[in-house]
Each structure stands twice: as structure tokens, then as C-alpha cells.
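Chapter review: from sequence to fold.
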Amino acid sequence: MWAKNALNSTLARVDGKIYAYGESLHFERPQAVRFRFSGTEGITFFCHSGGETLTWDTSELSEVDLDEYGKELVVNLADHAPWSRLIGRTLTSVSEIVSPDGPVIGYEFIFKPDGNLLLLNLGDEMAVFDEPQEVILKEESFLSRRYAPPD
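The C-alpha cell string follows.
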């Protein structure tokens, strides 16, 4: 249902759950990402605990104190690449990225004008790309299929 509601909506905000250790923030591999599109509820993407899928739900992000191992902080990503160039753009298409075994391991988002975002679960970590990754998709035999949410 989220994709149906988000299509043709403007990306208003993106928050990420970012691992922090000391003064170092790890923006390149968010633990979770929450999109907010104009006129819709937020949608959160994260690696499933089973290790191989990228899943979503509508829950809010929350910070986690990992004691001596650092923290997971909720950060507005609007000033960080690739998110900064997608804020205010309209979502025109969403595709699921599927492994040969069947699970959904990622999503590709197409924005107009000229915006592309790919979220993939690679080794139980979320990888974020701002351009098509044909090499990865081909090497791993991943398939892309347009997301058609149930009515």
C-alpha cells in the first residue's frame, strides 16, 4: 500500500538510523532509512533479522545506546548525499530487487527529474547507491520487477 500512496508524491524528508562510535558517524551504511512523502505516512526500510532481505514497515525510527560499542542515532539525512538531491523530487516508480532464491533484497526508486536511488541488503548491511548498479545486479543474478502493491 505504501508504494501506491507514495507514487507521484514529493519526497519531503529522509531520516536514517546511523551507527556512531565516538565522534564518527557512519552515513554510508545506514541501519534503517525512513522516507516521508508529501501526504503519506512514513515508510521505514531496514535489513530483516534473517539476514538476506530488505523489508519495510511504518514504524518510527528510534535511537539505541549500545554502551561501549557506540550508538545508533536518528539523523535527518537531507544535507547528506545522495539524499540531498532527492528531497523535493517526485517519486515516479518503485521496483523490487529480487534474489534468484526469491526474497526481496532491495528496492529501486526513480524520481523526476533525473533521480535514482537503490537500497540493497548486501551481507546483512544496507547499501545505498544513487545510480543504477547493473554490474552488481548481473553478477548476483538479481532481478528487478516493478512493485505492484495489492489494492
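Two observations follow directly from the output. The chain has a mean pLDDT of 89. The longest strand covers residues 11-21.
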